[in-house]
Amino acid sequence: MEVHIFNQQKQLKEYADKYHVQLEAWAPFGEGRGGTFDNELIKGIGDKYGKITAQIMLRWHIQRGVVVIPKSTHYERMVENYNVFDFELSEEDMNEIAKLDTATSSFFSHQDPAMVEWFVKMVEERKQNNRSEKEKKNW
User: Please, which of 20, 25, 35, 64 could form a disulfide with 3 given CB 3.0 to 4.6 Å?
Assistant: First the structure.
């Protein structure tokens, strides 16, 4: 599910925990939308631990019991993303980050049937277009 500091999916997390379902964060950084990497609270917490904002966000997910698989093509970022196991956020810091929740998607409403239908159609069209491009290359 889309889970990040601005869309924390608190109710979903409660149900997932209740029924022993492992929640995995899709877009654990919210793809940087809404200023996740520039958020002053996250920066301040990062300064406290000597960590960058991405590391604070990853650690927050981990401490909540949410699986995170951050994507990067840059070796330096991969190393930074891995270096989140040598510290722990305090309960106070976790509570402060919890206050950032807007419970709003950074992308689109996953509960709006028309939006979901549009998204599915777009994905199917992309699949068809990519399949056509691959077939053309084989000629």
Answer: 25
Residues 94, 60: contact at Cβ < 8 Å? yes
Neighbours of 39 (CB within 10 A): 19
pLDDT at 1 over 90: no
pLDDT in tens, 72-81: 889 999 999 9
In the block, residue with structure tokens 């995995």: 24
Hey, what are 58's tokens? 């990853």
End-to-end CA separation in angstroms for the chain: 40
Calpha distance 135→139 (Å, rounded): 7
Q: Which amino acid is at 80?
A: E
pLDDT of 111 above 70 = no
**CA angle at 29 for the pair 75 and 111, rounded to the nearest 5°:** 140
Helix (H) or strand (E) holding 25: strand 24-25
Beta strands in 35-115 (DSSP E): 67-68
